[in-house]
Amino acid sequence: MKNGTLYIVPTPIGNLGDMTYRAIEILQEASIIGAEDTRTSRKLLEHYHIKTPMVSYHKFNERGRLDEFMKKLHKGENIAIISDAGTPGISDPSSILVQEVIENNIEVVTLPGATAFVPALISSGLPAERLYFLGFLPEKQTERRELLENLENIQDTLIFYEAPHRLKDALKELLRFLDDRQICIAREISKKFETYYRGMLSHFIENFDEITLKGEFVLVLEGAQEPTFTDEELRTLIKEKFHQDKSVSMTAKELALECKLSKNRVYKLALHMKKKK
After folding, report:
1. Structure pTM?
2. Is residue 240 part of a domain?
3. Among 75, 110, 145, where does a domain finish?
4. Residue 226 located in a structural domain
5. Could you tell me which residues come within 8 angstroms of residue 189 by beta carbon, excluding any fewer than 6 positions away?
């Protein structure tokens, strides 16, 4: 018996008109639909008169559904996976199932369609040739700090997802670890109140009340700029500052502002030099 196919089907992130003809056909013809929240997805299915049975498929039962879905696929049934909005697998469940399906030589077909970060990137006006997509920042502080420290010198445009209640803290941590740079804060992509806030990271921290805290956010952050000073040149400048009895932190802050450099880079060099004294 021929195996079925697993379809990963993007759904609109706001405007129901963003559903593709092919996505509708796949959902109509599938044996079953695995939906992140069946109550949310029912509105979409009713809108397009799709009567295919649904079962819940989310991060809390992802492994529990595995055997059930694999049996159906081995019987030749096609399964469609959808999330509440956007493409499953991008900050949403499906990776465990996809891996299992591939290991069993069953076909996986991912349809092109709605996702939030691509419109946000293009509309940000920031470079789109190379990007570094990071999804939601880790909840644990140590993991978050480690991730952000590793991003300090990445020159590609950085993209994050964030929830309204965590937005202010996220912006502060981006400034703390990555220093001031251009950012585009996008909210409610494809919906009635779609909004883009463009400017310097520090501006939106100082003027946070300019941002309407409703809906999901995409943060598109300028990548690190190419160093204009070598480490040896920076060491010379740091020595000059130290002669003025400046603290390590103040040295880093002043040089970063004067030379438009990463404060973290200057601070690490200054701290290393002080320890060697």
Report:
1. 0.80
2. yes
3. 110
4. no
5. 13, 14, 116, 119, 120, 216, 218
